[in-house]
Design brief:
CATH topology of the largest domain: Rossmann fold
Low-confidence stretches: none
Protein name: DNA-binding response regulator, NarL/FixJ family, contains REC and HTH domains
CATH class of the largest domain: Alpha Beta
Keywords: DNA-binding, Phosphoprotein, Transcription, Transcription regulation
Order of helices and strands: EHEHEHEHEHEHHHHH
Largest sheet: 6 strands, parallel
Organism: Lentzea fradiae
Helix content: 40-55%
Structural class: alpha/beta
GO molecular function: DNA binding
Strand content: 5-15%
CATH architecture of the largest domain: 3-Layer(aba) Sandwich
InterPro entries: CheY-like_superfamily (IPR011006), NreC/VraR/RcsB-like_REC (IPR058245), Sig_transdc_resp-reg_C-effctor (IPR016032), Sig_transdc_resp-reg_receiver (IPR001789), Tscrpt_reg_LuxR_C (IPR000792), WalR-like (IPR039420)
Mean pLDDT: 83
Number of helices: 10
Number of strands: 6
Shape: globular
Length: 213
Amino acid sequence: MRVVIAEDSVLLREGVQRLLADEGIETVAAVEDGDGLLDAVTEHKPDLCVVDVRMPPTFTDEGLRAAIECRRRYPGLPVLVLSQYVEERYAVELLAGGASGVGYLLKERVADVKEFVDAVRRVADGGTSIDHEVITQLMVRSRRSPVDSLTPREREVLGLMAQGLSNTAIAASLVVSDGAVEKHVGNIFAKLGLEPSNSEHRRVRAVLAYLDS
């Protein structure tokens, strides 16, 4: 796997690079701003971009906007965003811009090496990995949507789906049967107006409907 890292903090940039190297993942470019990210993606055509949200010159949302632009120029380019905060507007825009290969994690997750590497591989393979805290904050800010019709358990299942877990993994996490999870997933699809299906595309559409609510 070939990765481009965009992070203005030298310590974190080098730390992520070494962590990935220990897992046999090559960093082909490590840059410190949005323009550098766009140039590196154009030059290297990486398998994944790991991008900080706040970078020079204003340290607001340059990284996230650059990630969205990368996805616009190169549809399907896997992008894993790292942030100390939940940037609501651009988070939804990034996630809604494509049905695969997107992730949004809070930086504290990097400390959990296994969780972070799992997210890197999942997103690079076209899956999703959305931090539970991101889901929670966006959910709290949402008002009057089809998501409101979900039961507490269905919301819990959808939150775990957003983190990229399979039905089997969700069942293990909630200590219920696979059949129970499949029933919840079917109910979620129905309430969100999505045809029931276990395909990745339908799962991601459900998550996007959740975030866009």
